[in-house]
Here is the input.
Amino acid sequence: MSFIVAIDGPAGAGKGTITKLVGEKLGLVNIDTGATFRCVALNMLQEHIDIQEEEKIEKMLNNINIEMHTDGKIFLNGEDVTHRIRENDVNGLVSPVSTLPVVRNKLLEVQRNIAKGKNVIMEGRDIGTVVFPNADVKIYLDAAAEERARRRVLQNQEKGIESSYEEVLKGIKDRDKRDSTREIAPLKKAEDAMYVDSTNLSIEQVVNQIVKIIENNKK
Ligand code: DC
Here is the structure.
């Protein structure tokens, strides 16, 4: 038996930070499903496979091995790619790759297997709607696009990357549109998910709110 907490929501709502902190507090294994899509995009780059080459993608997926270790490290076919999958070339390819049915089907299996027999907190876009529709707790973590853009600009500054607020905001709005209007597994709140708006909350306040929701649902 496993206990599953699903955390869905748009890019920049704080899912990564919050999931990690809540997982540590409650002893749940933290699974970032975005990283699995990033591994597929990276594998395509490594093998010089184009997004249109469906047969080659299918073949690649038949041999792919993605491992998520409890220390947060991610391995693609035996290689540590924890940092590599956050680089720009992967950022640019991952969103279109995540719309491919062949990729989503394969990763559905991978994501369900990673969680098997464990108590997990899993973040993504379709965890409460598609991957684990019977999850014990479902949270939809949101924030206003303007606030998400503000946070992203600050993050970039910390990394020494200069970016304009207007451009970042436009990028976020475009991504929201693409993620929520795609045909398969679009980003949307599951009917039975609790809605948490982090726009005006600190990280600590969001963590406390989510911990409370999870504890109220533990029998
Ligand atoms: O959360 P992230 O930015 O690492 O996600 C990378 C991409 O993968 C993002 O464009 C949306 C997609 N994704 C998805 O379609 N379904 C998920 N469960 C997780 C991520």
